[in-house]
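Sequence in, structure out.
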Amino acid sequence: MKVLFCGKVFPEAKRRLAKLLQAAGHELIECEESEIINHTDNVDVIIPAIANIDSYIIGRSKFGLVQQFSVGLDTVGIETATRFGVWVARVPSSKSRNAASVAKLTMYLMIGLSRKQAEMRRSFESRQVGQPIGMALLNKTTCIVGMGNIGQALAFLLLSAG
């Protein structure tokens, strides 16, 4: 089996995946996003990472599976894939534990924005302590758009933070 990994992203994960595939007698090929169509004739699986796997690529290829490396499938033409009999899969964030990481990053960014972290760093560099005055998140209302795994993890963090 040949697996095409699209883009020069996630080098460590790609290296581990290549090692696992090779141990099982399979091959990992990588290419730039602009070169995907040149490599689809003899691959069985495409891992898009952040690349677009659109109707042009799907309609002119023979691969049978698009396996997203993460949760998002917004770069994959799912309707076209379905029409051409191409399976599309992803790694649910509840299984990869990515939801908790993204929720924590969201909390970090919320605190950074409310405390004006970027402006505060500049103030520290110019030796002005206590400026700007940020805002606490206590007793603030948060709107979470979407209650999938990440939204639920964020809600849990917000509720447990008090």
